[in-house]
Amino acid sequence: VRVTATPLLKDNNKNLGILLILEDITQIRKLENMRRDFVSNVTHELKTPLTSIRGFVDTLKAGAIKEEQVAARFIDIIDIESERLSSLINDILLLSEIESKEEQVVAPCNMDTVITDVIELLQPKIAHKNVVIVYSPKPDMDYYPANANRMKQLLINLLDNAVKYTEVGTITIQCEKRKNKLVLCVEDTGIGMEEEHLGRIFERFYRVDKGRARKTGGTGLGLSIVKHIVERYNGKIKVESKLNKGTKFTIELPY
Ligand code: ADP
Question: What residues does the Histidine kinase domain cover (predicted)?
């Protein structure tokens, strides 16, 4: 609680008493702490690939550049790490844009087109896997009043995860209008997660398994971005998952 005390004086400077203002600042403090944690997490996440890049550049400069095979391997690592740095920066900027700007809906978004586009975009990623994406458009579901880019981003993030965490199996996408809601489901038959993680995966930079996430190239911001987009449209997101069985995300967006 923040307390402010102001003396109350009459015209002749006679003291009438004190005005005490008590303010509940729990929420402000909570936001301040969240912001501080976020900045320190961002700094750490950006520093990791940068340190690795600098380390390999130094080693190359110190002589490794003369050994062709070693140099090629180091340059590959530098390439991967700078790509990671770039994805991180893009995701951080996107998250802050979603948080700070009101959504401008220019035209109703054709969900069927968005889903089909995203499936096409991800084809190269499933080409070397034994994974099929199943999507059957519903005849009565086509337009939803939202920014198409945001809907696309939401689907990219969910589908990208489904592909990343499934080696063999099926990814099913469903999108339909139920009463006054648009219901969107992305389900995979991949590695799944244990119950204990489900409440935390929407937090920024939370990863079930840091090593695994690093290998798959995630930034740890994908689901946080999805959640923010859903909240922008006053919607809800739910996750169900079973280890080694698969994961299902269900999003409900009110019309
Ligand atoms: P990342 O960029 O690491 O994938 P996300 O915010 O997209 O970050 O997801 C957070 C964590 O949730 C991931 O690190 C992963 O462990 C877990 N996760 C997300 N989607 C799936 C999925 N479809 N199957 C299994 N685990 C998932």
Answer: 41-255
